[in-house]
């Protein structure tokens, strides 16, 4: 995604999970043991995945869940983890923008009028395309600026939402009133008829 517009570039692959697919998971995404049996292992194509994402931020819905899986597989095949500093969680963005509302991908698609009628299963590529549209809406839509004559290039440069612990501590600056200001304030108070603080 560049300038909040999809580039058309995708990385889509099926992998053999080296385990039996739980029935409840298959019901969600429709991927059976038989279908995945002849697919490559993640380790065989990990370099393609890493080449694709390069050093870009990665947008995901409930991103911590996805990052745990990705980093486990990367570690297993000897690659460095993807830094969580690159994680852009659309659930966190939606909580800020729509506090108290339903935050599922389906709910956000409905809120923003994004068509998902062709979605019958939770496929990774289709979900990613829907989430890209949701992300654009969460960031304010496709209009990213009104500076005339200026080129704006934005390559999804989201960073983590700062918490109080992330902010550097700064000593508060002293703003004590001067003697003249205190005297002027006292004179002003004398001129106020029936002040509330004197009632």
Features:
elongated, 40% helix, two-stranded parallel sheet, DNA-directed DNA polymerase, DNA-directed DNA polymerase activity, Ribonucl_H, single chain, RNaseH_sf, 8 helices, 199 residues, 2 strands, DNA binding, mainly alpha, Nucleotidyltransferase, domain 5
What would your notes on this structure say?
This protein is mainly alpha-helical and 199 residues long. It has a domain at 23-138: Nucleotidyltransferase, domain 5. The chain contains eight helices and two strands. The chain has helices spanning 23-29, 33-36, 42-53, 63-76, 90-97, 105-111, 124-138, 179-190, and strands at 58-60, 87-89. The protein has a two-stranded parallel sheet with strand order 1-2. Strand 1, helix 4 and strand 2 (87-89) form a beta-alpha-beta unit. Helix 5 packs parallel to helix 7 (124-138). It is elongated, with a radius of gyration of 26 Å. 8% of the residues are buried. Residues 145-164 have low confidence and may be disordered.
CATH class of the domain at 23-138: Alpha Beta
Biggest pleated-sheet summary: 2 strands, parallel
The succession of helices and strands, N to C, reads HHHEHEHHHH
Q: What is the H level of CATH, i.e. the homologous superfamily of the domain at 23-138?
A: Ribonuclease H-like superfamily/Ribonuclease H
Strand content: under 5%
CATH topology of the domain at 23-138: Nucleotidyltransferase, domain 5
